Amino acid sequence: EVELVESGGGLVQPGGSLTLSCLASGFRFNDYAMRWVRQAPGKEREPIARITRGSLAMDYSDSVRGRFTISRDNAKNMVYLQMNSLKPDDTGVYYCSTDDYKYMGQGTQVTVSS
């Protein structure tokens, strides 16, 4: 059974940091580039970060570049999103996904508020 399980979300004050984790199972994790996607309230899902299979390249949306860092550990089937300098606009549900969106987790809620 394919599973992507996100964790690490929560409530954080503006300017704070969070690290999201995603544990993958049931498919050949090393064969896929991976993404983080978020959905803000009332908005479409937005891809925000991508990492290639061997971590040779990472891409970010303009909205998070310079503040967020995506990484992965292929030995542990894990992908991470380090989020710094969080803003209220970063509030939303964060999902990890394969690059082709074939597999996607259930998401973890991030709320940035004072």
**Rough outline:** globular
Strand arrangement across the biggest beta sheet: 2-10-9-4-5-6
- Return Rg in Å: 13 Å
Average predicted local confidence, pLDDT: 97
SSE diagram, text form:
Blueprint (H helix, E strand, L loop, with lengths): L2 E5 L2 E3 L5 E8 L8 E6 L5 E7 L6 E3 L7 E6 L4 E6 L8 E7 L9 E5 L2
Give short descriptive properties of this protein:
114 residues, mainly beta, six-stranded mixed beta sheet, globular
Structural features, described:
It is a single chain. The chain is built from no helices and ten strands. It is mainly beta and 114 residues long. It has a six-stranded mixed β-sheet with strand order 2-10-9-4-5-6, with no helix packed on it. The protein has a four-stranded antiparallel β-sheet with strand order 1-3-8-7, with no helix packed on it. The model has no long low-confidence stretch (mean pLDDT 97).
Short overview:
This protein is an all-beta fold. The chain has strands spanning 3-7, 10-12, 18-25, 34-39, 45-51, 58-60, 68-73, 78-83, 92-98, 108-112. Strand 5 (45-51) and strand 6 (58-60) form a beta hairpin.
